[in-house]
């Protein structure tokens, strides 16, 4: 199985992106990270089929609603303490892949307060809904 690529989706999808979403969440495996919420920065790219992101009548109900993606990210961040960024990101990306019309997701999370001398430490994952996967 291989992921579709942004290049392979260029003619059939629209890339929708969210940049710099800052959420407060309880995340971290260390004792000092369990005492208070931390900031989490999120960047997300969603490749959404043109038929799910185009409206001939300029109507919101015809297209992918950004509110749905932001709600998924906020809900998962607020769900409770998570030790690992990887675990939280996996939960977020699975839900994003389930949104109507989504063919590919790139999701990156970063903890800007993890180290005093590092701007941020984070991870990035790409995933496609199972139905968008194909054999290579």
Question: Can you walk me through this structure?
Answer:
The structure is a single chain. The protein has 136 residues and is of the alpha+beta class. It has helices at 6-9, 66-77, 85-97, and strands at residues 13-25, 38-49, 102-111, 121-127. Strands 1-2-3-4 form a four-stranded antiparallel beta sheet, covered by helices on one side. Helix 2 runs antiparallel to helix 3 (85-97). The longest helix is centred in the C-terminal third of the chain and has 13 residues, at 85-97.
Question: In terms of topology, how is this protein built?
Answer:
Blueprint: H1 6-9, E1 13-25, E2 38-49, H2 66-77, H3 85-97, E3 102-111, E4 121-127
Antiparallel strand pairs: 1-2, 2-3, 3-4
Alpha-carbon distance between the termini? 6 Å
- The H/E string reads HEEHHEE
Principal-axis shape equals: elongated
Uncertain segments are: none
Major sheet description: 4 strands, antiparallel
Radius of gyration: 16 Å
Features of the shown structure:
4 strands; alpha+beta; 136 residues
Q: Summed up, what is this model?
A:
This protein has three helices and four strands, in the order H-E-E-H-H-E-E. By secondary structure, the protein is α+β, with helices and mostly antiparallel strands.
């Amino acid at each position: 199985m291989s992921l579709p690529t942004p290049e392979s989706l260029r003619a059939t999808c629209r890339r929708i992106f969210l940049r710099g979403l800052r959420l407060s969440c309880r995340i971290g495996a260390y004792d000092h990270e369990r005492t208070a919420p931390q900031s989490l920065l999120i960047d997300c790219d969603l490749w959404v089929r043109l038929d799910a992101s185009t409206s001939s009548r300029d109507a919101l109900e015809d297209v992918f609603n950004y509110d749905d993606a932001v709600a998924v990210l906020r809900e998962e961040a607020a769900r409770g303490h998570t030790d690992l960024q990887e675990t939280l990101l996996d939960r977020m990306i699975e839900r994003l892949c389930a949104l109507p019309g989504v063919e590919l997701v790139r999701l990156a999370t970063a903890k800007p307060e993890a180290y005093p001398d590092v701007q941020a430490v984070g991870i990035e994952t790409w995933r496609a809904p199972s139905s968008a996967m194909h054999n290579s």
